[in-house]
Specification:
The protein is α+β, with helices and mostly antiparallel strands. Helix content is about 30%, strand content about 25%. The radius of gyration is 16 Å and the shape is globular.
Amino acid sequence: MEIIIKPLSKELIDDFFYFFDDIAFTDNPDWSDCFCCFYHFGGSDEEWMRITAEENRQTAKTMIQTGKMKGYLAYKKEKPIGWCNVNDKKNFAKLIKRKEVWGGKEEKICSIVCFLISPENRKMGIARRMLEQICKDYAVAQYDYIEAYPRKGNLSSAEQYHGPASMYLKAGFTIYRELDEYDIMRKKLSE
C-alpha cells in the first residue's frame, strides 16, 4: 500500500476540508465540528462548546491560509486518509494554558495534538508512518524535541486522538512527565 505524506499547505486546503467533511468522522459525527481547532482555542471549555462547526471551519481556513495551522495529510491513491496536527508548542493556545505541560527551561519543542485516520485505514501503520515523517522534518527544522500527550485508560479509537503511547514508545519517545489522565512523552530530535 503506497502512502504519500504531505505537509499541510494552502494548496492542500480543499483536501483538508474534504477529509474533515467526508472522511474523518464517519464513525464519530459528534466530533466533526472541531476542524482541529480545539488546541488552537484559548478560551474556556464552556466557550468552546458554543462555537459552531462553521466558525471552526472558517478559523481553520484562516489558519491554513496564514500558515498558523500546521500538520500533515496522508494520502492513499491521491485521496486523503489521515491527518496529524503538529506545530510549534507555543502555537497551541490550549497548551499554553496548561501549566503541567511546561517545564522549567523550554527548548524548541513541537507538539503533536491530534491524529485522525479514516476508519477503514486504522491499524495499518499510517499514523506511525506519519510520525516518522514528522520527526524527520522537525529535526531538519532544528527542533530540540517532539512532544505528544497520549491519554491513559481503555479508550476508543476516537478517544486516542493524541495517538497511543505504544506508538510513541516504538518511535523512541520516553515518558517525560506522568499525569493523571495522560503522559507527556518526548523524543530528542537534535544533538
